[in-house]
Specification:
By secondary structure, the protein is α/β, with parallel strands linked by helices. It has two domains: 81 residues, Urease, subunit C, domain 1 (Roll), CATH 2.30.40.10; 284 residues, TIM Barrel (Alpha-Beta Barrel), CATH 3.20.20.140. It is built from ten helices and 19 strands. Strands 4, 5, 6, 7, 8, 17, 18 and 19 form an eight-stranded mixed sheet that branches. α3 packs parallel to α4. The radius of gyration is 22 Å and the shape is globular. The two termini are 37 Å apart. The relative contact order is 0.17. The N terminus is likely disordered.
């Protein structure tokens, strides 16, 4: 099962819309709801034609000159090069700029505020205040050109309340991560009994609430006292039961997996993706070529924890700095073997991880061997695929959502160009 198998699905009354005819000014639609049919004649929206100097389409390896992207509301309906704008279209001239697909961050925590102690700050907020702070985090992401985020750990399913809001990125939501009693991020509310029956019940609860993906904490983490990154939190058979139950409900599973035992168990359980994948041990970093090959052979998406904003006086913890060369070595080996990499920034967990930090990820991806174009694809089309949105996100092409990032400069030659944001369009709406 591909990662993101049902991401973005919504439960709603069945209906169909058929467009019978269009003119330059009008369109005739038939809306079918159950046994009822309704003919609707509406004034057609004006098309928007966007011109720029260069375009990166999300799947290619080079910029293409003189693009013209035509939008019909929230959708891209045409991409030409040096063409003539459709008659009557509104023309937006972005002279000298580069167009890219809106960026896709596969791992954020909107509930965390990127402070020095985001866990305590969240605990001090009731759900209403937390939701307001999460909404501002989403808006900050949009302003940075991140038009789609996958929230891999909220509190009390609050991120689900932000889905489909016009002022928010497209949101793929996991709800509270499933964790063991007193396990990593237990304070978010996703604790499950550490048994097959316990995790199956937890997955069913998440499915009933309408999540898009299951996040399970296969190992401990540094944000939770009493847990250790090198230690597994669930037995292998328990993880397998969680994955089986999730797949029965059409949900993909991604595992928080730092320690080598957790990585091995998650692979044996058949997860669709893994976050971090550091091979953390008590002494340093393990190097297990058999597991690296298994990640590639099983098609598991690797969510690399990349993207950091320099903050004066804030440095990586000593235990991370000590292990970083080993983590990079493992990730370089994974890339050499053909692993599918995306950038999961973990936005929100500290001052170096503000919301919208994804534009800082490409240089770190290039450190592990990705080319300039591969790094951009990892935060556009490849990331969209991992989120289950490959059919409408991560590319500039007809039929895709009108999510656009407009920057000054060449992001292939100069990754910092991603931070020179001139404009952002999310689902056809200009937000910057």
């Amino acid at each position: 099962m591909a990662v993101g198998g049902r991401s973005g699905a919504r439960r709603s009354a069945p209906y169909r819309v058929c467009v019978l005819a269009r003119t330059r000014s009008w369109q005739v639609r038939v809306i079918v709801t159950g046994m009822t049919k309704q003919v609707v004649v509406t004034e057609r929206r004006r098309l928007t034609a966007i011109r720029a100097a260069w375009l990166f389409d999300g799947v290619g390896s080079a910029l293409v000159a003189n693009p013209m992207v035509v939008l019909d509301g929230a959708a891209i309906v045409g991409v030409e090069f040096g063409g003539t704008a459709p008659a009557g279209a509104d023309v937006v001239d972005l002279a000298g700029a580069t167009l890219l697909p809106g960026l896709v961050d596969t791992h954020v925590h909107l509930a965390f505020d990127a402070s020095l102690d985001p866990v305590a700050r969240l605990a001090a907020r009731d759900d209403e205040a937390a939701l307001a702070a999460m909404a501002e985090a989403g808006r900050a992401s949009l302003r940075a050109g991140v038009t789609t985020v996958r929230d891999l750990g909220d509190r009390n399913y609050l991120s689900l309340l932000l889905r489909d809001r016009a002022d928010q990125p497209t949101l793929v939501a996991a709800g509270p991560p499933i964790t063991s009693p007193s396990g990593h991020c237990h304070f978010l509310g996703g604790v499950a009994e550490a048994s097959a029956a316990g995790v199956r019940a937890a997955v069913r609860r998440h499915a009933e609430r309408g999540v898009d993906v299951i996040k399970i904490m296969a190992s401990g983490g540094t944000m939770t006292p009493g847990t250790r990154q090198e230690c597994a939190q669930f037995d292998r058979e328990v993880l397998r039961a969680a994955v089986d139950e999730a797949h029965r409900h059409g949900l993909p599973v991604t595992a928080h997996a730092h320690g080598t035992p957790a990585i091995a168990d998650a692979l044996a359980a058949g997860v669709d993706g893994m976050e971090h994948v550091t091979f953390w041990s008590a002494e340093g970093i393990d190097h297990r070529d058999d597991l690296l090959r298994a990640i590639v052979d099983q098609g598991v998406a690797v969510g690399a924890t990349v993207g950091m904003v320099p903050v004066e006086g804030v440095a990586a913890p000593a235990q991370v700095a000590q292990r970083l060369p080993g983590i990079i070595e493992n990730h370089r080996r994974l890339h050499h073997l053909g692993a599918r990499f995306v950038a999961g920034t973990d936005a929100g967990i500290g001052p170096v991880k503000p919301h919208g930090v994804l534009s800082w990820a490409p240089p770190m991806l290039r450190q592990v061997g990705l080319s300039a174009a591969e790094s951009l694809r990892a935060i556009t089309s490849v990331a969209a695929g991992v989120c289950g949105l490959a059919h409408r996100k991560g590319r500039i092409a007809p039929g895709y959502d009108a999510d656009l990032l407009v920057v000054d400069g060449d992001p292939l030659a100069d990754p910092a160009a991603l931070r020179r944001v001139r404009a952002v369009c999310a689902r056809g709406r200009w937000v910057v």
